[in-house]
Design brief:
This protein has helices at residues 57-73, 99-107, 163-173, 201-215, 225-235, 256-283; strands at 6-8, 36-38, 41-43, 89-93, 112-117, 130-134, 148-154, 174-183. It is α/β, with parallel strands linked by helices.
Length: 297
């Protein structure tokens, strides 16, 4: 990893949740918060263009809704790896708003959580055992070797261009016996009974998302447990286990928990679809801005 631009903690920030006019005990370069605006949305400045979704408040709300949907689907379980109750150093790769890091810090008060992201959008009210850094996970890591007990990702498909590199660096920086866990989503809508039409709007949206991601640098949104498992094993990991979960969209499930999960997922998609779509389709697909402004229903 390149030398960290800034290490952020709750003592570092004096004012402003978005870090636009703040002072840090570790100074943060103004270029990091010189955010880029496009089609009315705000994007990260550090390594501009590397990440294709916005980092503004609307997108942060969507990410947090998505987090709660997944947490419900996971039965309120944040970590599936057999980690110790005395969990030590944790790396949250692509921490986003920091919501997972904060919840894990609360559940494991003796752990040291490091959240890495291209955007300094995390809350200034962080737990005392959480530290945030603005950095690029696809650069050489500067953490010591054999340093972490647990490395975590969540929904980094479409963000990382070189997964084998990420797995190789995770392997080197995990201590012997440490764990890597990737909680990823396949952006591929489907129906258990096969009734989703091939020409449905959501099918076309998923297809266009994948096409744009491929054009953006060979990335994919079609995560599968078997693909991840194979890449982990290639990097040297052993005893790799793949678990699959269904994430409903909407209130159709009979099961109450799944219905609540689907409701959160639907709201996250409806409120966030502009941010999920705009940069991808206008930069890499054959669409201008105008077709993206239509109404539904």
């Amino acid at each position: 990893m390149a030398a960290p631009i800034a290490a952020l903690s709750n003592e570092d920030v004096e004012n402003d949740d978005q870090y636009d006019d703040v002072s840090y005990t570790t100074s943060i370069a103004s270029s990091i918060t010189d955010y880029k605006f496009e089609h009315g949305r705000r994007y990260h400045a550090y390594k501009e263009g590397r990440y294709l979704l916005p980092n503004d408040e609307a997108e942060q709300d969507r990410m947090d809704l998505q987090y709660h949907a997944l947490r419900l689907a996971f039965g309120d379980q944040m970590i599936f790896a057999p980690v110790s109750e005395k969990l030590g150093r944790v790396l949250d790769a692509g921490t986003g708003t920091g919501i997972w890091a904060e919840d894990v810090a609360d559940a494991y008060p003796n752990a040291e959580i490091y959240g890495i992201d291209l955007s300094p959008i995390q809350s200034r009210f962080s737990a005392p055992n959480v530290k945030y850094q603005v950095d690029d996970l696809e650069q050489p890591w500067t953490f010591p070797l054999d340093h972490f007990d647990y490395v975590h990702t969540r929904i980094l498909y479409g963000s990382l261009r070189d997964w084998p590199l990420f797995f190789a660096q995770s392997f080197k920086h995990l201590r012997p016996g440490g764990h890597l866990e990737c909680q990823e989503i396949a952006v591929d809508a489907r129906a258990d009974d096969g009734t989703l039409p091939a020409d449905s709007a959501i099918t076309a949206w998923c297809r266009n998302q994948e096409e744009a991601m491929q054009k953006a640098g060979g990335m994919t949104l079609l995560a599968t447990g078997e693909k991840l498992k194979a890449m982990m094993e290639e990097a040297g990991f052993v005893d790799v286990v793949a678990k699959e979960f269904k994430i409903p969209i909407g209130q159709w499930p009979a099961d109450e928990k799944m219905r609540e999960t689907g409701t959160l997922q639907l709201v996250a998609m409806l409120e966030g679809i502009g941010g999920l779509t705009m940069a991808l389709w206008t930069r890499y697909a054959v669409y201008g801005r105008k077709p993206l402004q239509g109404k539904t229903g």
